[in-house]
Every structure is written in C-alpha cells, then in structure tokens.
User: What shape does this take?
Amino acid sequence: MSPIRRCYWSAMLLLCGMIVMTTLLSGSSINAQESPPTPSPSALFLPIVHGPPPSQVLIAAAYIDSAISYEPDEAILLWNIGLGAQPLAGWSLTAGAQRAAFPITSTVVLAPGARLWCTANADSFLHSFGEPAGCAWESAPAGTPMLDAALSLANTGGVITLADAAGAAVDTLLYGNTTRQPTGWIGAPATLYTRGLATSSGQVWQRKLDPLTGLPIDSDYAQDWAGDLTDLAWGRRVRQPGWGGWDPSDGLLPVTGVETAAWGVAVGPEGLYTPLAEILNRASQTIDLSLYTFEHPPLAQLLAGIIRRGVHVRLLLDGAPPGGITNVQKWCVTQIAAAGGEVRYLAVADEAPTGYKRRYRFTHAKYGVVDGHDVFVGTENLTLDAMPLPATQPVGGRRGFYLFTDAPGVSAALSDLFARDWRPALFADMHPYDPADPKYGAPPADFVLPAAKVYNVADAPFREVVRVEGMAPYAVISAPENALRPDAGLLALFAAAGPGDEITLVQMYEDKYWGESASNPIADPNPRLEAIIAAARRGARVRLLLDSYFDDAEQLRSNQATVEYVRAIAAAEGLNLEARSGNPTAGGIHAKLVLVRLGEHYWAAVGSLNGGETSHKLNREVVLLVDQRTIYERLYSVVEHDWPLAE
Assistant: This one.
C-alpha cells in the first residue's frame, strides 16, 4: 500500500505524513458544503469526510488550452481516491458532443490512489508533461490503451463528464464561460487563475489537493479547483505541464529532515567567492549547477580547469533573463562548453521545437551539487558584482548569502530536483549550447571582457565563512511546487510566530500586493507580507529590510510603496513592525533572506525566492531552510550591521 493510502484513515484525525519539523505545520479543518462557500482569506473548501469510498474516480485535472498548435497534448487526468481498484472497461469521457470510451474488453484498472492521464497524442504529451500517458484517443505507441473515439476540448469553456460502464455520470468538470448546468455540478463554472503573468494558454486545470491526504477534493463546486479566487490560502494557484507536485515524491511537500551534518554560511559581496571556489575545486566526479545566469569569468575558468581534470559538469541556465543573455555570459559558457561541460538553456517559447511552452517563466534557482553530497544554495547570481575576487581593501557589491552543507537529505533533494529539471532527451524546452547560435552560443569574435565594476564601501566585515557541525532540522523548499503551502515552510513559520518571537526579512523586493500591477492589497494580497503583518499583530517583532538600489519608487508596486504601507499599518495599530529600504554595500540588496526565531528555534532561509507572485507561482526557485543557531546568529549580525544604514 502506498504512503498516501496508508495515511487516508489516520488523516481524519491528524496530519499524516506531514509532521515534518517542530513548529512548522498547522492543521486545516474539513468544512461541510451544504451551499456555495463564503469567500474567506484562509479557508480550504473541503467536503464532509465520512470515510473513503470503495472506489471513486475523479476528473482531477485537464489540459485544455495547449500552447502547441492543433493541441495534440490535450489531456484529462483520472484519479482513484477510493480504497478499491476500479476497472475502466466500458467507462467513457464526454466533451461537448464527443464521447470516447474504453473498449468493453479493456484491461485497464485504476488502483487505489492511482492516477491515469488520457491524451490525444501520447508522444506530444510525453514531451510536454515528462511522463507517459496511460491512454490516448488519437495516437500512441504500441501497447498504450486506446479509447474508441477522439475528443476535442473547447478552450473557452465547456463540460467534461466521466461516466461508468452503465452510462451513469461519475464526475463532471464545468469550466470557463459556459452557461450549462450539468448533472454532478453545483453553481458557477470553475475558472483558471490568470492575474499577473499567468495566462490561460498552456495552463492545466487542476483540483485542490486535500492537505490531510494529498488526494483531490470533490464537493461538486468550482471551489474544488485551484484557480478559485475566493480561497487565498489554497486557491489562486497555477499549474503548467512538466511540473511536479502531484505527490510527496515529486514536490507536493518541502523535503524535510533532521540530520547531523556540516553547515556553513557565507555573506556577499565580500565573502562569497572563496567558499564557492573551494567547494567546486573539491569535486572529483560531478558538478550539477542550476543557475539563473553565469557572468563570472574567473569561476568559468575555474570550472573549465575542473572539467579538464575529468569532472563531469552540467549547467542549466535560463534562456531569457530580462535584458537577454550578455556577452559576458556567452564568454563564460563558451569556456565551460569548450572544456567539455554540458550546458543547456531553458528556451523561450518560440524557440522550443514545434512551439512547446517552456516549463517555467524563469529558471531562477541558484544551487549546486558537488559529487552528489556537497551542496550550496544561495541568493546570488554568479557575477563579479555579487562575488568579487578577494582584495586587501573593503570591497562592495551585491548584498547576498549562500548556505553550504553535506546533509545527505539536502543533497538528495537537490540532486532529485536537478534530475527532474535536466531531461534534455525528454523535454523540448532545453536548448543546447551551440557556439554558432546567435542567442545561445559564443560572443562576437572581437568581444573583450570588461573591467569589473568597483563599489566603494567603508567596511566589509563579513569575509569569513562561519561553519558549524551538528544536528539540525531543515527543509528544502521549491517553487512552483510547494513554496506557497500555508501548512509548511515559510508561511507555516510566520503563522506560528507570536509574543516573544521575531521575524526578519532582507529582500531584493517584497511586493505590496500581487495580481495586476494596478491592483491593491485587499483584492490581491501578498500572502507573505500579510503573514508577517499578522505575526506582528499577534505580538511578534517584525523587521523588513528592502533594496533601494534597484527599486523604482515611481512604480505602484515598488519597495518604497511596501515600506510606506507597512509603516502606516504599524503606526495605526501600534505594532512592533518596522520597514526600511537601503543599499548597505553600494551594489544593492539582492538577497532573499528570512530569519524566524520561534522560542528556542532559530530558523534561517536562504535561496532564490523573491517576494513576488511570479517567483512563487511560475518560476523554478529553491530555498534551504535550517534551524541552526550559529547560522542564524551570523545572518542576524549582518542585519544588525545593515539596518542602521537604511532609511
């Protein structure tokens, strides 16, 4: 029996499988639905639970408006949430006037807890979703079960019905702008979340998953579906093909553990280059790097030398950072590729073969795995602004941080995440380095590396790496899969903070609100920002230090606007809540740092996750969270140094 199935009965009483670290999780209630739910900022709309049925198959997701012309990868996900196996012989799917059935001779059986994707073209589906389809209605490799007719899913709205062998409706999805009211559905149609940068094209319709069981919820309302605007805790979610997050094995929850390991923290700009160079130089077999950009010539030359001595290096980069791929990066990547390193870019949509949409808005993570066991996770891109070479005089640049560890659970989690993202033979959005490619290739033949920019500062006191060995709880958080879970990770820590506790954020930006640029914190709240304000209302001390170097104060959604918003709330309510913006190291605050002291627990989170909606819902981001007092105190000392320099 799978872990999900073993959890089902006990989940009625406790959070089975989700007690991942001290103080991180908070329970969720199960609410009856006798009528359409009332909007709530924190409610998860769940049906009354009377125990699992012998078998119950749901339409758990649907890929309706594909990004590919002619939409060959349209698909419907069936999920058996019951305890018994369900043969699908004679069962059918109906979309509009079209009906496609499993032959009466079909041997397809959906086991308890099992999922099965049915698609139009199984090969196209494989290259979009990264997993094989369980059945198809147009074409598929030999041996794949076929339905007896074709379906076409209407992009703008319609009804999809699952019926059993007797023709009785088992489940229904009413979606989009349709006005029909089919059997098995109550109220308005389900909607997708399309605010901000989220678009309907290339988005998967998905049910919310019950946090107690990990199974889809079903009460026949639109609020069962993850685009639900009325549910600020579990709704307003987005899914695209190729993402994980369906179950604990592929990112449904942060990866957590408690292990004895070596831990280290380095502070930028002055203290990052040396420890990164050292950990890379220790490699004897492999280095896997998932980075947003790579614009550090000395580190590129170092990696080239490491490759030449026999170390296998794989480098995953974003193919469309704002401003494009610079000639400095092209120079760096050329050195690595010429030495024998493998380099892949996450291609933009119109450059991926046959129009496949790339999986993430940006692959914005900044982590590496060395020899499968030594790892680093940071806030900074590999640039000389963030990681200047050691100097005798104080050196400025970007304020940022990196964590280092050899904790086996952390290295396994990051190795698994890299393996899921790095599948060039499968996903069509991975563009290889080619020296002749004008975008993803070498710089112009006459290109000369520019001189490094100098940032003058009065002091740079954080050159040394602070290291400690011992047992510590940790969590590896990833976006888009689990960074927004209110019951785990950062949001759970914020929710646990109260009198005597302290929350500190040092961020490149923390948006005042999400959604459209002209929205507001009432219509489109930033869950992180509202969570730390709520902690202050409960009596916690909260400080927010934001960047002023990159900030455009004229924008509606600027750091300056956030600072003014937080200060107004603090003044009106008399809260121990402060916000400032500054530039303590002359090159900007580029950090994404969260510190949370809960009683005797000292949590520090370092990673690539900014305080915006795209970061949480559309990007590939990684955060390492650790409860280790020495690490916390080092990072807190940086805040104490920088805070007086901000306004």
